[in-house]
Design a protein that fits this description.
This protein is of the alpha+beta class. It has three domains: 2-81, Uridine Diphospho-n-acetylenolpyruvylglucosamine Reductase, domain 2 (2-Layer Sandwich); 86-211, Uridine Diphospho-n-acetylenolpyruvylglucosamine Reductase, domain 3 (2-Layer Sandwich); 213-308, Uridine Diphospho-n-acetylenolpyruvylglucosamine Reductase, domain 1 (Alpha-Beta Complex). The protein contains eight helices and 18 strands. The longest helix has 19 residues, at 276-294. The radius of gyration is 20 Å and the shape is globular. Bound molecules: flavin-adenine dinucleotide (FAD). Residues 25, 59-67, 81, 98, 123-126, 128-130, 132-133, 135-137, 175, 181-182, 212, 214, 218-220, 303 line the site of flavin-adenine dinucleotide (FAD).
């Protein structure tokens, strides 16, 4: 596998037994069998096809801000997309490649007087990660702003899909099932005054600073919020996983180097010495306590990479 990968992207962009912890915001977990950086669609398709031909699992890592990597690492190939271009194919569309950070995209749009994504300032991670999990902020999903998504399928085929075909839902998209790799997404854009857009972006950043424990490593919200129609929350309790964990008495609970944040009970923060097993144990404690006390089954928003 190493020889094949090297022949596609060159030696400098393949690492065997590559530590993944530094590439995630939790900062925990083991190594990938092979970590590969791709810089073009051709390289991406070739790596996807090579992994499929060798029967090796293929995973994508974006900004690593929504994943928990197993202490035992990740088998197979872990891809990082170094495709971070952005362009304006028409007056009302912005095309962002999947490896671009959401913050980079917000800045680019504001700088050109284009409105649409300014409230998303401060969302960690990449465009690809935001599309995969249908990132949300302030009661809105990123999919509301997406017109088209280009993907490479697990057998290396190219597809351009309207947002309506992406299976977007709360914290989800069809990518969980199809395991396609996002290459770019087109976002709706409209003219806007850069100063006014900057003010909105600053307000979003300030709100995050006030409400989230940003000084310590985390992966944002660990659990999805309960959903009407899917879950039943006892009367008098907010439909919020943070509130449920808090009222179950687990705010500030610790396992090893991991702690349920005293600031926001849907965040788990780490002290630099945590393991993935510590974080997973806290997740299980929270799920059990909320199930037993309120009859609500919490579901993870974060994604496990490897056998956590
Ligand atoms: C402090 C903090 C605050 C946060 N606030 C929010 C928030 O307000 N709203 C919100 O929704 N989330 C929030 N998050 C979570 C996280 O930022 C988002 O889920 C983000 O969209 C993840 O992007 P990423 O690039 O880091 O993805 P990663 O964590 O790298 O990956 C997440 C998943 O996406 C997949 N993926 C990544 N790139 C691609 C691609 N190109 N093609 C296919 N699959 C891909 C990965 O395989 C993985 O399954 C927060 C996280 C932190 C640390």
């Amino acid at each position: 596998m190493l020889t094949t990968l090297t022949s596609i992207v060159g030696q400098a962009r393949v690492t065997a037994n590559a530590p993944l912890a530094p590439l995630t915001t939790f900062g925990v977990g083991g190594a990938a069998d092979w970590l590969v950086e791709v810089r073009s669609v051709e390289e991406l398709r070739a790596v996807v096809e090579a992994a499929a031909a060798a029967g090796q699992p293929l995973h994508v890592l974006g900004g690593g801000s929504n994943v928990l990597v197993s202490d035992a690492g990740v088998r197979g190939v872990v891809l990082r997309l170094k495709l971070a271009g952005v362009s304006q194919p028409s007056t009302d569309r912005v095309r962002a490649e999947a490896g671009l950070t959401m913050n980079g995209l917000v800045r680019w749009m504001i700088g050109r007087g284009l409105a649409g994504l300014e409230t998303w300032a401060g969302t960690p991670g990449t465009v690809g990660g935001a599309i995969h999990g249908n990132a949300h902020y302030g009661g809105h999903d990123i999919s509301e702003l997406v017109s088209t998504v280009a993907v490479v399928t697990p057998v290396g085929e190219w597809r351009e899909e309207p947002a309506s075909a992406m299976g977007f839902g709360y914290d989800t998209s069809r990518l969980f099932e199809t395991r396609e790799v996002v290459v770019w997404a087109d976002f709706f854009a409209a003219p806007g005054d850069p100063e006014a857009l900057r003010a909105v972006a600053r307000a979003s950043l300030a709100h995050r600073k006030r409400t989230q424990p940003l000084q310590l490593p985390s992966a944002g919200c660990v659990f999805q919020n309960p959903l009407p129609g899917r879950d039943v929350v006892p009367a008098g309790i907010p439909w919020s996983s943070g509130a449920l964990v808090d009222r179950a008495g687990l705010k500030a609970a610790r396992v090893g180097g991991a702690q349920i944040s005293p600031v926001h009970a849907n965040f788990i923060v780490t002290n630099g010495a945590a393991t993935a097993a510590d974080i997973r144990a806290l997740i299980e404690q929270a799920k059990q306590a909320v199930r037993e006390q309120f009859g609500v089954q919490l579901r993870e928003e974060i994604v496990y990479l490897g056998d956590v």
